[in-house]
Amino acid sequence: MAKKIVAGNWKMNKNLQEGIALAKELTEVVKNPNCDVIIGTPFIHLASVAEVIKGSCIQLSAENCANKASGAYTGEVSAEMVKSTGAEYVILGHSERREYYAETPEILKEKVELALANGLKVIFCIGESLEEREANKQNEVVKAELAGSVFHLSAEQWKNIIIAYEPIWAIGTGKTATADQAEEIHAYIRSCVAEVYGAEAAAETSILYGGSCKASNAPELFAKPDIDGGLIGGASLKAADFKGIIDAWG
Ligand code: 13P
Fold first, then answer.
1. Could you tell me what percentage of the chain is helix, strand and coil, using 3-state DSSP and rounding each to the nearest 5?
2. Phi, psi values for residue 108, rounded to 5°
3. Cα 33 from Cα 246, distance rounded (Å)
4. What residue ranges in the chain does DSSP mark as E strands?
5. Which residues are the active-site residues?
6. Rounded to whole angstroms, how far apart are CA atoms 35 and 147?
7. pLDDT tens, residue by residue, 188-205
8. How far apart are CA 69 and CA 104, in angstroms?
9. Measuring from each residue's beta carbon to the nearest atom of ligand 1, which residues come in under 6 Å?
10. Angstrom distance (rounded) from CA 123 to CA 94
11. Cα–Cα dist 1/49, whole Å
12. Most buried of 69, 128, 143, 194, CB within 10 angstroms?
C-alpha cells in the first residue's frame, strides 16, 4: 500500500516570521494524523522551521533545488544545502517552475538525481495544461514528463519518489478536477509506473493530487483508490484549512 500523504506547498508566500508562526501553529493543531504531513517552504524558512517542527509529526520539504552540485552559481541553492537544513524532501517539476523558470525535462532530471544523491525524497510534479486536456492529451503529457525526468531511475532510487499530479488548469483557479477525472489519470499514472518498475512498486508509489484541493473536496478525492493524498497550495497557508485536509484521512 502506498503511504498516505498531505503535503503543503507554500510557494512564495509568508515572510520568515509568518512562516515560523504557521509552522508552530501546525505543530499545535496537527496531532496523530492518519497520513504523513509535509510542509514545503521557501529556502530561507527551512532551517528555522526545521527547529520548530522538531519532535512533531510534521516533515519538511524545499520547493526547489539547483541542478548543479556546488560552485559559482550565484543565487542558487543546492540539494546538499537543502538537506543540511533538516529538510527531507524537495518538490521538483512544479508547473510554475517549468513555465516561469523554463525548467526542462533535462534540467529536472539533473535536479532529481542531485536530490536523491543527497538523501532527499522527491515530490515530482506532473500535469497537463487546459489546452492539452481539451485535446485529450493528458495521458501522453504525464507519461512524457515521467519518461523525461524520472523513469531512468533505478528501482532502489524510485522508492524515494512521490508523484504529484497537478492539472495546470486546476492550480489556484478554484477549479478542481472531479474525483472521477483525477482517479482516471492517477490510475493511468500508476499503470505507467507499473510498466517500468512492476506492479508491486507501482502499488507502493504515493500519487498525490494537487489543484484547488481543500477541506471540502478532499474527502471525495482521497476516497479514490489511486489518490494517496494531496499537494496543497492556497489551503496550506492557514493551519485550520490545512488541518481540514489532513482530517480527510479520518
Ligand atoms: P492550489 O492548491 O493553490 O491550487 O495549488 C496547488 C499547487 O500548485 C500545489 O503545488
1. 45, 15, 35
2. -65, -35
3. 7
4. 5-9, 36-41, 58-62, 89-92, 121-126, 161-165, 207-210, 229-232
5. 94, 166
6. 28
7. 999 999 999 999 999 999
8. 18
9. 9, 94, 166, 171-172, 210-213, 231-235
10. 9
11. 30
12. 128
CB 90 within 8 A of CB 65: yes
For residue range 206-237, list pLDDT tens digits in order. 999 999 999 999 999 999 999 999 999 999 99
Q: Which three cell numbers stand for residue 171?
A: 492550480
* Ligand 1 binding pocket mutation candidate from 100, 171, 236, 241 (most atoms within 8 A of CB): 171
CA of 72 to the centre of ligand 1 (A): 32
In contact, 125 and 94? CB cutoff 8 Å:
yes
Count, in order, helices (H) and strands (E) of the chain.
12, 8
Half-sphere exposure for 137 (CA within 13 Å, toward CB): 10
CA of 237 from ligand 1 middle (Å) equals 11
Helical pair 138-149 and 179-197, crossing angle rounded to 10 deg: 40
Q: Whose Cα sits closest to atom 9 in ligand 1?
A: 233
Model-wide pTM > 0.85: yes
Distance CA 117, CA 234 (A): 31
